[in-house]
Amino acid sequence: MPQTTTRQHWKATSVAVLGLVLACTGLTLAALSNPSRFSSNVRNDKYIDLLAGGGLACTLVGTGLFVLAVNRTTASMTRRDKARANLGIGLGAVFQLAGVLLTGPMQWHDLSGLVVILASLPLFVWGAMHYAHGKGQPKWLGCAGLLGIVGLVILMVLPDRRDVDVIDHESDIEFGQG
Fold first, then answer.
1. 3-state helix, strand, coil in the chain (%, to 5)
2. Cα–Cα distance list, 157 to 46, 56, 85, 137 (Å)
3. Cα–Cα distance between 66 and 17 in angstroms, integer?
4. Residues 92-145: pLDDT tens digits?
5. Are 160 and 133 in contact (CB under 8 A)?
6. Are residue 69 and residue 112 in the same domain, yes or no?
7. What does the buried/exposed string (b/e) look like for 5-33 if buried means 16 or more CB atoms within 10 Å of the residue's CB?
8. Residue 107 placed within a domain
9. What is the pLDDT, as a whole number, of residue 164?
10. Higher pLDDT, 40 or 142
11. What is the mean pLDDT of residues 71-92?
Protein backbone atom coordinates (compact mmCIF):
# COMPACT_ATOMS: atom_id res chain seq x y z
CA MET A 1 0.00 0.00 0.00
CA PRO A 2 1.54 3.37 -0.98
CA GLN A 3 2.49 5.89 1.72
CA THR A 4 -0.36 8.32 0.98
CA THR A 5 -2.90 5.51 0.92
CA THR A 6 -1.64 4.24 4.28
CA ARG A 7 -1.87 7.73 5.73
CA GLN A 8 -5.43 8.15 4.39
CA HIS A 9 -6.36 4.72 5.75
CA TRP A 10 -5.20 5.59 9.27
CA LYS A 11 -6.82 9.01 9.06
CA ALA A 12 -10.17 7.40 8.21
CA THR A 13 -9.74 4.85 11.00
CA SER A 14 -8.87 7.58 13.51
CA VAL A 15 -11.93 9.59 12.49
CA ALA A 16 -14.08 6.45 12.85
CA VAL A 17 -12.78 5.75 16.35
CA LEU A 18 -13.25 9.40 17.33
CA GLY A 19 -16.79 9.22 15.97
CA LEU A 20 -17.52 6.10 18.02
CA VAL A 21 -16.09 7.65 21.18
CA LEU A 22 -18.22 10.77 20.67
CA ALA A 23 -21.35 8.72 19.93
CA CYS A 24 -20.81 6.54 23.02
CA THR A 25 -20.16 9.63 25.15
CA GLY A 26 -23.34 11.18 23.80
CA LEU A 27 -25.38 8.09 24.55
CA THR A 28 -23.94 7.99 28.06
CA LEU A 29 -24.79 11.65 28.65
CA ALA A 30 -28.29 11.07 27.34
CA ALA A 31 -28.71 8.09 29.68
CA LEU A 32 -27.52 10.21 32.60
CA SER A 33 -30.19 12.79 31.79
CA ASN A 34 -32.88 10.40 33.04
CA PRO A 35 -35.21 12.65 35.12
CA SER A 36 -35.86 9.90 37.67
CA ARG A 37 -32.26 10.34 38.88
CA PHE A 38 -32.96 13.90 40.00
CA SER A 39 -35.33 15.55 42.45
CA SER A 40 -37.95 17.90 41.02
CA ASN A 41 -36.57 21.42 41.02
CA VAL A 42 -35.52 24.02 38.46
CA ARG A 43 -31.79 23.60 39.10
CA ASN A 44 -31.94 19.90 38.35
CA ASP A 45 -34.04 20.55 35.24
CA LYS A 46 -31.11 22.57 33.87
CA TYR A 47 -28.76 19.60 34.48
CA ILE A 48 -31.21 17.28 32.76
CA ASP A 49 -31.49 19.60 29.76
CA LEU A 50 -27.71 20.09 29.61
CA LEU A 51 -27.02 16.35 29.75
CA ALA A 52 -29.71 15.56 27.18
CA GLY A 53 -28.61 18.34 24.80
CA GLY A 54 -24.92 17.49 25.14
CA GLY A 55 -25.73 13.83 24.66
CA LEU A 56 -27.72 14.49 21.50
CA ALA A 57 -25.01 16.77 20.07
CA CYS A 58 -22.19 14.31 20.79
CA THR A 59 -24.19 11.41 19.38
CA LEU A 60 -25.04 13.25 16.16
CA VAL A 61 -21.49 14.53 15.58
CA GLY A 62 -19.99 11.13 16.44
CA THR A 63 -22.36 9.29 14.14
CA GLY A 64 -21.63 11.74 11.34
CA LEU A 65 -17.87 11.31 11.73
CA PHE A 66 -18.23 7.53 11.79
CA VAL A 67 -20.36 7.47 8.63
CA LEU A 68 -17.92 9.83 6.90
CA ALA A 69 -14.99 7.56 7.78
CA VAL A 70 -16.81 4.43 6.61
CA ASN A 71 -17.59 6.13 3.29
CA ARG A 72 -13.89 6.91 2.87
CA THR A 73 -12.93 3.28 3.43
CA THR A 74 -15.47 2.02 0.88
CA ALA A 75 -14.35 4.34 -1.93
CA SER A 76 -12.38 1.62 -3.75
CA MET A 77 -15.06 -1.08 -3.49
CA THR A 78 -17.12 -2.33 -6.39
CA ARG A 79 -20.63 -0.92 -6.47
CA ARG A 80 -22.08 -4.34 -5.68
CA ASP A 81 -19.96 -4.93 -2.55
CA LYS A 82 -20.48 -1.36 -1.39
CA ALA A 83 -24.26 -1.54 -1.83
CA ARG A 84 -24.51 -4.89 -0.04
CA ALA A 85 -22.19 -3.80 2.78
CA ASN A 86 -24.18 -0.59 3.29
CA LEU A 87 -27.50 -2.43 3.20
CA GLY A 88 -26.50 -5.21 5.60
CA ILE A 89 -24.57 -3.11 8.07
CA GLY A 90 -27.03 -0.20 7.93
CA LEU A 91 -30.16 -2.30 8.48
CA GLY A 92 -28.38 -4.48 11.03
CA ALA A 93 -27.37 -1.40 13.03
CA VAL A 94 -30.90 0.03 12.86
CA PHE A 95 -32.39 -3.24 14.14
CA GLN A 96 -29.77 -3.43 16.92
CA LEU A 97 -30.66 0.10 18.01
CA ALA A 98 -34.37 -0.77 17.86
CA GLY A 99 -33.69 -3.80 20.04
CA VAL A 100 -31.89 -1.69 22.61
CA LEU A 101 -34.77 0.81 22.63
CA LEU A 102 -37.33 -2.00 22.98
CA THR A 103 -35.45 -3.40 25.93
CA GLY A 104 -35.17 -0.12 27.81
CA PRO A 105 -32.78 0.62 30.66
CA MET A 106 -32.21 -2.28 33.04
CA GLN A 107 -35.18 -4.26 31.71
CA TRP A 108 -33.43 -7.26 30.19
CA HIS A 109 -36.20 -9.48 31.50
CA ASP A 110 -38.23 -8.31 28.50
CA LEU A 111 -36.87 -10.57 25.76
CA SER A 112 -38.41 -8.78 22.77
CA GLY A 113 -35.49 -6.36 22.47
CA LEU A 114 -32.95 -9.13 22.87
CA VAL A 115 -34.69 -11.16 20.16
CA VAL A 116 -34.54 -8.17 17.77
CA ILE A 117 -30.84 -7.66 18.54
CA LEU A 118 -30.05 -11.33 17.92
CA ALA A 119 -32.14 -11.35 14.74
CA SER A 120 -30.14 -8.37 13.42
CA LEU A 121 -26.82 -10.18 13.66
CA PRO A 122 -27.09 -12.29 10.46
CA LEU A 123 -27.91 -9.16 8.46
CA PHE A 124 -25.03 -7.21 10.04
CA VAL A 125 -22.60 -10.11 9.46
CA TRP A 126 -23.77 -10.46 5.84
CA GLY A 127 -23.00 -6.76 5.28
CA ALA A 128 -19.66 -7.09 7.08
CA MET A 129 -18.73 -10.04 4.85
CA HIS A 130 -19.31 -7.87 1.77
CA TYR A 131 -17.34 -5.07 3.41
CA ALA A 132 -14.38 -7.43 3.98
CA HIS A 133 -14.66 -8.82 0.43
CA GLY A 134 -14.84 -5.29 -0.98
CA LYS A 135 -11.53 -4.51 0.70
CA GLY A 136 -9.93 -7.59 -0.87
CA GLN A 137 -9.96 -9.53 2.41
CA PRO A 138 -11.39 -13.04 2.84
CA LYS A 139 -15.17 -12.97 3.25
CA TRP A 140 -15.02 -14.99 6.48
CA LEU A 141 -13.42 -11.98 8.20
CA GLY A 142 -16.90 -10.47 8.03
CA CYS A 143 -17.73 -12.70 11.00
CA ALA A 144 -16.19 -9.84 12.99
CA GLY A 145 -19.66 -8.35 12.47
CA LEU A 146 -20.78 -10.58 15.35
CA LEU A 147 -19.11 -7.94 17.52
CA GLY A 148 -21.36 -5.23 16.06
CA ILE A 149 -19.82 -1.79 15.60
CA VAL A 150 -16.57 -2.97 17.25
CA GLY A 151 -16.30 -5.62 14.53
CA LEU A 152 -16.84 -2.98 11.88
CA VAL A 153 -13.97 -0.92 13.31
CA ILE A 154 -11.78 -4.04 13.20
CA LEU A 155 -12.64 -4.44 9.51
CA MET A 156 -11.93 -0.77 8.88
CA VAL A 157 -8.42 -1.15 10.28
CA LEU A 158 -7.63 -3.93 7.81
CA PRO A 159 -5.77 -2.69 4.73
CA ASP A 160 -7.45 -2.49 1.34
CA ARG A 161 -5.88 -5.25 -0.75
CA ARG A 162 -7.81 -4.59 -3.96
CA ASP A 163 -6.10 -3.40 -7.12
CA VAL A 164 -7.77 -0.17 -8.30
CA ASP A 165 -7.55 -1.17 -12.01
CA VAL A 166 -9.32 -4.46 -11.26
CA ILE A 167 -12.03 -2.60 -9.34
CA ASP A 168 -12.70 -0.18 -12.19
CA HIS A 169 -12.87 -3.06 -14.69
CA GLU A 170 -15.23 -5.09 -12.43
CA SER A 171 -17.51 -2.07 -11.99
CA ASP A 172 -17.67 -1.56 -15.75
CA ILE A 173 -18.51 -5.22 -16.36
CA GLU A 174 -21.10 -5.29 -13.54
CA PHE A 175 -23.04 -2.43 -15.05
CA GLY A 176 -22.67 -3.52 -18.69
CA GLN A 177 -20.13 -0.91 -19.74
CA GLY A 178 -17.22 -3.17 -20.63
1. 80, 0, 20
2. 40, 27, 16, 12
3. 7
4. 988 888 887 777 655 556 678 888 889 999 999 999 999 999 989 999 999 999
5. no
6. no
7. eeebbeebbebbbebbebbebbbebbeeb
8. yes
9. 54
10. 142
11. 87
The residue from 54, 73, 92 where one domain ends is: 73
Judge whether residue 4 has pLDDT over 60: no
Determine contact, residues 105/34, Cβ cutoff 8 Å: yes
- CA neighbours within 13 Å on the CB side: how many for 51? 17
33 three-class SS: coil
Among 172, 168, 127, residue whose Cα is nearest residue 146: 127
Q: How many structural domains comprise the chain?
A: 2
Please give the Cα distance from 35 to 49 (Å, whole number): 10
Q: What is the rounded CA–CA span in Å between residue 68 and residue 40?
A: 40
